[in-house]
Fold this protein.
Amino acid sequence: MKEQLIRVRGHRLSFWEDGRMVFETYCGYGRNGFTSDKREGDGCTPLGTFGVTLAFGTGRNPGTALEYRQIGPLSYWSGERESYNTWVELESDSTPMPASERLWDYPTQYRYAMFIGYNAERPEWGRGSAIFLHCRATDHWSTAGCISIARAKMLRLLRECRPGVRISIEEN
């Protein structure tokens, strides 16, 4: 199986397969830059190397080999202590999740996205959640701590990636 790596260095995202660069593109990141000490709500993108374990979106699966989940009106990424940094599918909209992100509310950015496995293995509450690689907003590149790329490049990346792909995020 080919080794795959998504590499982010500043505003450049590149996709590598078996040590060979396949493509490179411009990317956005957290509005407050990068950090090695991520905190919930700090507007920073975490530095490090992480697994990419899930793809999701409001759009249909574009042909990725990664696990893909369809976003619905009751899909949330939890900021709640008991389910921190996990996907939660509510049974009704009467269950409040005030500290969580309703994925449906970001139809442009989350048309297609990937979960960056930061703080995922043993989630520590308050250390940052909902860190994604997603489509850029229509009017800006910066994010609340995620990585953003153009939708066409996101689609290409989803189609190229296989289970086991990793992402390395560096300042420069």
Summary: The chain has one helix and 14 strands. Residues 4-170 form a domain with the L,D-transpeptidase catalytic domain-like fold (CATH 2.40.440.10). The mean pLDDT is 96.
